[in-house]
User: Which sequence fits this backbone?
């Protein structure tokens, strides 16, 4: 009788230990202070070295991502909807003095049509503080692969083409590491709250 109780007791202790271990592992794996709309990485991830050109013609490498958070968005100037809508939202955040908005970086995935002049006019139409980046396909590839950005070119009936691309916002911390990602649809209040949380923990 006592032997049966001992077996049951130790079985319950073992189950409790397993349950505690599972809960503890989940807590350790989960990032602190979860975001409302974005997904915070458990550990910030280094971004592969890249070399592009900004809309003013200056070199832009990983070193220019140091010192403050950046929000990286990929698109192209001929984009009919997602790109202008997203950049308009980010411009609204950038103009909000109460928001902890990161610096916005727009990377064109259509270097064939988006030369520096066109890129400059495009980003400055939304906010003069925005940074536009371009590079030839071989220069873009390291950054696209490092952040997991999809890009596909499709011919249109008029003989031209359009570019399908990821609409994700990539949040890089003040060390230039990928710290969080945001996928549409985007909400201004949620982005404002999430950027404040990320800035506070950077």
Assistant:
């Amino acid at each position: 009788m006592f032997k049966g109780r001992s077996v049951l007791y130790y079985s319950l202790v073992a189950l409790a230990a397993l349950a505690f271990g599972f809960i503890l592992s989940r807590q350790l794996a989960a990032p602190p202070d979860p975001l409302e709309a974005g997904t915070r990485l458990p550990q910030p991830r280094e971004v592969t070295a890249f070399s592009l050109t900004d809309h003013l013609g200056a070199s832009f490498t990983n070193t220019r991502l140091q010192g403050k958070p950046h929000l990286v968005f990929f698109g192209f100037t001929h984009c009919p909807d997602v790109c202008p809508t997203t950049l308009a939202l980010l411009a609204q955040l950038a103009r909000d003095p109460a928001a902890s908005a990161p610096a916005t970086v727009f990377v064109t995935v259509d270097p064939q049509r988006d030369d520096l002049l066109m890129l400059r006019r495009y980003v400055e139409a939304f906010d003069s503080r925005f940074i536009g980046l371009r590079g030839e396909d071989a220069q873009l590839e390291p950054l696209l692969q490092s952040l997991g950005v999809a890009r596909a070119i499709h011919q249109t009936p008029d003989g031209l083409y359009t570019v399908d691309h990821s609409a994700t916002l990539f949040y890089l911390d003040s060390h230039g590491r990928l710290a969080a990602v945001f996928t549409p649809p985007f909400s201004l209040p949620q982005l404002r709250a999430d950027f404040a949380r990320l800035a506070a923990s950077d």
Notes: The first strand starts at residue 39 and ends at 45. Residues 1-28 have pLDDT under 50 and may be disordered. The beta strands are 39-45, 51-54, 59-61, 70-75, 103-108, 131-134, 151-155, 161-165, 169-172, 178-182.
